[in-house]
Amino acid sequence: MQKNNLKIEYSKADFEELSPQMQSLIEHARQETAKAYAPYSEFSVGAAVLLADGTIVCGSNQENIAYPSGLCAERTAMFYANAHYPDTPPIAIAIAARNKNGMLPRPICPCGSCRQALLESEIRYNTKIKVILYGTQEIYLIDSIADMLPFAFVSLD
């Protein structure tokens, strides 16, 4: 038996180090947390997707008492972008979260279902989607959704 190791590269950045476009994307994600419907978890997530033409599409988590009928912020935003701008590739997504105490100091990562759905958009558009995970004390930058899902479920053509 051979053991192997997987590693992903990511960067850490301060808000001021980011381009104005990436700062704006984070601000959209932060603002979107206020639109979440999260009466059960009290955990609000906002996502902002940047399209290749500069359009920003946002989404927030939407819970439902009939769990798991709700939807995460990342999929809400990406599905809206794919449905309303089907010919414009997404190139980045920013994700932010808060709880009853305010914005989180450390970034959160998309759940497995969101990672798979976001990867589908990379495959659909044949374009890497940069991931920006926001926390008030740390910001992580990941070059591609595929980096976050090394054993992804993909077509076996």
Description:
The chain is an alpha+beta fold and 157 residues long. It is 27% helix and 24% strand. It is built from four helices and seven strands, in the order E-H-E-E-H-E-E-H-E-E-H. Strands 1, 2, 3, 4, 5, 6 and 7 form a seven-stranded mixed beta sheet that branches. The chain is globular and about 45 Å long. The model has no long low-confidence stretch (mean pLDDT 95).
What's the gist of this structure?
With 157 residues, this protein is an alpha+beta fold. It has helices at 20-32, 73-84, 112-125, 145-148; strands at residues 11-13, 44-51, 56-60, 90-99, 102-103, 130-134, 139-142.
Helix count, DSSP H or I runs of 4 or more residues: 4
Rg of Cα set = 15 Å
Distance between the termini: 28 Å
Largest β-sheet summary: 7 strands, mixed
Which structural class is indicated by helix and strand composition?
A: alpha+beta
Strand content: 15-25%
Write down the overall geometry.
globular
Count the strands?
7
Instruction: Give average pLDDT, whole number.
Output: 95
Low-confidence stretches: none
The percent range for helix content is 25-40%
Helix/strand order, N-terminal first: EHEEHEEHEEH
